[in-house]
Design a protein that fits this description.
heterotrimer, A mainly alpha, B mainly alpha, C alpha/beta, A: mainly alpha, 2 strands, 73% helix, globular, C: alpha/beta, Rossmann fold, 7-stranded mixed beta sheet, 5-stranded parallel beta sheet, 18 helices, 50% helix
Chain lengths: 316, 435, 565
Amino acid sequence: MLELVLVSTLNGVLYGMLLFLMASGLTLIFSMMGVLNFAHASFYMLGAFFGFQISKYAGFWTGLILAPPLAGVIGALVERYGLRNVHKHGHVAELLFTFGLAFVMEEVVQIIWGKLPLDYRIPAALDFSGFTIFSTNYPAYKMFMLLTAIGIFIVLLLILTRTRVGLIIQASLTHPHMVGALGHNVPRIFMMVFGFGCALAAVAGVIAGPALVTQSNMAALLGPILFVVVVIGGLGSLSGAFVASLLIGLLQTFAIAVNLSIADVFGYFGVHTNPVPFLSDIWRVTVAQVGPILPYLLLVLVLIFRPTGLMGTRDT
Amino acid sequence: MSETVQTASLPRSSSSVMGFVRSYGIWVAAFALIFILPRIFTSGFALTAMSLMGITIIFSLSYNMLLGQAGMLSFGHAVYYGLGGFLAVHAMNAIASKGIAVPLPVIPLIGGITGLIFGIIFGSVSTRRGGTAFAMISLGLAELVASCALILRSFFGGEEGITTNRTKLLRLFDLNFGPQYQVYYLIAFWCLICVIAMYALTRTPFGRMCNAVRENFERSEFVGYNPQLIRFIAFCLAGFFAGIAGSLAAINFEIVNSSYVGAVQSGQVLLAAFIGGVGSFIGPVLGAVLVTYLQLTLSDITEVWQLYFGLLFVGMVMFAPFGMAGILMLHAPLLRAGTLWRLLPYYVIAFVPTLIMLTGFCLLIELTVHVMVKASDGPMMSFLRVTFDSHSFAPWAVSAALIATGYGLLRLIWPRVESAWNDAMSLARQRGGVA
Amino acid sequence: MAATGAVTAMSVFVVRGAAGFLPFWLARFHYNFSRPSIHFIVLRFASPVAVTFPLLILTRTQSLPAEPRCETGFTIFCNGLLACAKPAVRLVRDIPARMADIGFLTGANDCLNVASQRTKNTANNVEHSQSYRLNQAIDVSREDAMKFGLTAKLSAIVALGLLAIPFARPVSSADDTIKIAYIDPLSGGGASIGEVGLKTFQFLADELNSKGGSLGKKYEIVGYDNKLNAQETLVQVQKAIDSGIRIITQGNGSAFAAAISDFVTKYNERNPGKEVVYFNYAAVDPVLTNDKCSFWHFRWDANSDQKMEALSNYMKDRKNIKKIYMINQDYSFGHAVRTAALSMIKAKRPDIEFVGDELHPLLKITDFAPYIAKIKASGADSVITGNWGQDFSLLVKAAADAGLQTDWYTYYAGGTGGPTAMKQAGLSHRVFAIGEGFANVGHPPADAFETAIRAKYGFSLFYPRAVNQMRMLAAAIDKAKSTEPAKIGAALEGMKFEVFDGGEGYMRADDHQFIQPLYIASFGERSAKEKFDEEGTGWGWRTAGKIEAANTVLPTTCKMSRPAS
């Protein structure tokens, strides 16, 4: 039992950190431009595919270093030539543009790499068992993922709060016109932030690719959860995104571990018959089966009762 | 304008006839068209396609009530469509098994009421916010309902869905709705009613207030209406019509499953409404017809039809966010002033390089697909009835040349088109425009 | 016929000409001709068309030769349009002068003003569309708005007409080939599996054609993409029927199989004489040959209950199985697997303990680590799973990561991606799968076929049952001496046949389920006897056991209504 709890906690934290890697980029972009980038998960997928392709010729570590900047450059180009043109048509048009872009990117990836899962391997240097909890091996690669994600968070926080570039970016978040008046090239800052956000998602893709399946439907699987994380955490708040991604990761992992259903709970109290035959499905469904939809339930609840999200600073 | 008509000494009785034609001519023409179409296109597939178009027209128009009229972008409109379909199927099964005397044409009303009820339930939650938050709530709700569809098996039927038989209901006028053309007429009839109803809705003060709420939420409150209530009512009504569309789809296919409430279906209606044009009433109709048609036939022609769809959508968002209807509307003043014919020759001249460029792009995409995806099919492929070797250099060079030529010519011609447009516009203004 | 045609053509000409004069005649009586308006233009377009149409349709539809009528419709429509073209051009030329005289456009001034502003200020424009502005103009009268909308609606009607082009498709006469519609995903996510199936069937058709086909006709496989969507599947079935195809085959997805079976049954009932038959080569939901059976549905894959019967017959003799954990996908197939496993294994080996019974969402889980943790915690030594595709690959991957040491009893370990995952996980000969045939069973004709198909396409034969299906179809057509689906169906019922991997199978008449011997094989390192490897991994299948056909038979609840033959 304890083993299950510990392993689930580790898995949950790991999944949460992965989500945070992606959500951080998304939050930055949203804070900057007010556009929720639907194609963010597609850049995650691009990172994984680029990492795979580069690692075939030059090894995993080269892929880790080269793939994110590549994806970031593509992101910057998308912003410069795509989003900027669409910006004048309003927020709805921007949202729809990124929506269409996500679609197109998935198709292009399918054309180039095919629809089957790719054989993206964990690098030999990390392919051993990290430590053993009771009788379960916990792979070292997952520890590496965890440490990378935490490292990136710390670096991001330091950049944003302690460096000059970070200060300019923070200022552009709230007072873009003033920053422009002070002589900074605000559109170029936007472009760089967009590219940087996409590069962050690509990093998540490169390190998650070997652990999870590298396939062209990666974006579609992780995309909706990403939005849930960002909205629950609060649109525009980085620490909110951190808390929300951990919350969602732990929630989903623990829900799977629990096999209770309403019938079981009532059974403990001696009630064995289902009083409402029409809703027998809800009666018998276990928490584990419901696990994957819990994030959406949480999203709806948060949006009803606390519309700005858990730690949101900005009302949309 | 009617004043000047009176002064020209028209006989009184005929002006009322002309008034009738002026006001309702278009609906009569549509009515006639709907009746004639199955006589023209009689193959089973054409009938199915037209039935699908009818359903998608209602669905897109109901979506436009949200997006175009009231300014609420929703990613989960298929929830009401699907739930309407599910309840219609359950109702049909219950009616058939218990022998209740309800004929099939009434079933869409049941679907509509379901959509309305769920619109009220979910709308009370969603419509408190607008803009991006509303879009996210709708997305979350849609994912929630779609996932529930696989958990609540007795209602949603699990992966297989629920089947029904539309011929087992009460027969009126000896219509058992077995043959497809009878189903087509049922759908066409409901489509006409819904289109008229939704158009009428846009002409009411409520419809106008929806537009006002879309433009400026805060200011519209000063007029005296509660904008949140307006949004809520618009949401419920959109759910009503979406439910009607869903139940018609259920009748047409005689099966409903969880894909009716899924994100893909929501995406399709968004695509249809947007491509057609959210700025006008006729836009979603055009978009629905075009998108349905493309969906049915494009997959036979090319394997990467989804890519073409995506590119079309992105292209529309970037270059023509008003959609096809918006483009047509841009030319309406010219048509009225009679200067459109000056512009048309330039359009025809510009059409040729555009076609060349597009052909080049399609050739490039098909070549890439063939080389990358269908490598096992061998090097020979065919495009537009011409067979060639995809591994040789020639077709790639041809496609590059086509794109370059087309783009170059277009760049040369475009300033002429622009100046022609400006001339036509200023002429139109001179002839009767600016007061 | 020719005379009728000539008379019709003449009458068209006369009527069209007469119809062209109609609006002028109307104009004389109704309003001042010097004031044309948009409504007038509508009348000009509509009246010749409206008058010509009914007449032509009435005269044409009576003669009813078996030629496509849609082309006629298109011709009529174009004629109608052309009839209006000349007067319309003249009218459009006249309009400007007339309108200027009368100040026609007074009401629409605001609209034009705003429209011209917009062409200059596109960069500053943040509105979504121009028509909003136009309708918001301060006093746009109802009439003006109506006229404005009319133009767009007019263009809509014309556009709709142009869409007629692809509908004008002639019905092909398929008398010289036997066409089989293959309806499975050919794009998107399931395309890798769908394309493999299509190529397999094409290979089989080529094989039959090289022997001369059946009744002198060649076989042709026509692929239709169902995009993994039930409605789309039905649309494609309709398309296939429209093209004259009478035999439909499908297999990927029991949900779509149920939809097709239902549709085909209803279609045959409503269209006697035009029946179609449906061959199911891979959808294993037992309900298709039990409660929802149909005379027009034939299944060549052993259903999931039969496979579990065979599997449990194999497992009951393995003494090392003591604790079983079940993990399945949460949909009809997964439910069927767990229900059958629970009942059959408990009946044969009451001493086996079921320590877990898990259902997870279909194709949504990316990390199975929590589930593996639960399996470990339960202490199971064997796992039964019906998972396929990515659910199987990820499950095996997670098991390897956590170092789980159990035997795996599966249905679809051989599916695309499975062998690669198993090799990566290093699970040599610990994963067992059940099927109607595997690559290394050792039957020489099967080996020859396997070599041939790998040489041509590069993938291994996933569907030995497709081979059985096509060969039995040819045999049934020869036996019935006809390609009518009803006769093919009658010939197939009860037919005995030598199956692909040797041995005999038969098509049970009660429920149209093919009964055949089944094999259990384990996947791992090859010995000298095993010639074929999978997916380039170097590992291959080794037969662990064979279950005779008689030991896979299960009772059925099917009560199908047969056509009166």
